[in-house]
Write the structure tokens for this entry.
Amino acid sequence: MAHIRVPEGAPGILGPMAISPESTKALRELVEVLLRGPNTLTPAEREMIATYVSSQNDCCFCQLSHGAAAAEHLSGDYELIDRVKRDYATAEISGKLKSLLAIAGKVQKGGKHVTPEDVVRARQQGATDKEIHDTVLIAAAFCMFNRYVDGLGTWQPTDPNEYREMGRIMAHVGYVRPNWEKTGEAA
Amino acid sequence: MAHIQLPEGLPGIRGPMVFSPETTKPLCDLVQVPLTGPHSLTPAERELIATYVSSQNDCIYCQSCHGSTAAQYLGGSDADYELIAQIKRNYPATPISAKMKALLAIAGKVQKGGKYVSTEDIELARQQAATDKEIHDTVLIAAAFCMFNRYVDGLATWQPRDPEIYREIGKQTAQLGYVGRDYKKPLQAIAARQQKVEAKGDSLWRTFDYRKGFPESSGPWPSVLKPQNR
């Protein structure tokens, strides 16, 4: 039972989104530009940042849905996403992405945890100002999304397989399609 | 120094907002809708939720801006600013409504993490007649400020301590809202301060370390702008 009345059977953020269309429009536009807009970081890399922060915040819905989106961007490589969540330092991802995930992990704890050294390390791996900016904002945004989803006590399926279809839609259709909440395709 | 190259002279979130216009639009909408739209909670009450969460996150810029906006909505007197300062310090002891106290309790839990919100917290808010929409918006505002605070601090933006700067920001926001404004426009209070600093042959933002505050600051800050927890 969610803390407030939301449509039955709507998982995670789709419940509160269905009852608050105005804020939902802004939330959808934000996540679309952050994760799928033109960027030197691939959508898969950005979905991994979102997934990692959500797993650090222990938000089941966000880490499984964005993990699925990341995997679907990578032709279904779900194992890589699991390794990134468990220990990204040993996963088969670029040095640059590792240094950006380190920054994202600091942002998850609190903005002031990010040190100049974290930023220098990312620059040494070739990260640009925009990539560092976007990493901080993606990490910060998922500290919001995770709290929105968990803070309202939403219903969150725990079987990762239930998120595959949702991940495909998130990866290949995107976040701003009209009437996302009403179609029920994601559920 | 901010962690990335941001436009000079713009405090707090304004630097990254101008740096990244494509994300700024949804961010402005996101703050405009829950904080200024038609609502059973007053704009001052909603700004208070933003202010309280920002002070719990120790974000100087956000707590000062939104605290000042809340005070301006209440009339903008010194007493209004003092009330906001007291709410940040210890809201249960202030004369705000029992419903607001129950909502601030929920906001405080969201700040720690979504799972901290308990059914008892919700029950207490309902006993004070909080509606589903009020609870939803409290959670969303609190969550959104856990984002804004991290955005502002995570990039180590310039966060001045001059109360005049935040008075100006609070007045502007209470009048104009958040959407469709020119955030590149310099603040008068900053321009005035910059002139003073330049007269001494220095630059306000080049030398500024937000962890230390203004080197030339003298005298006690009004308690409303004194950062909490440090």
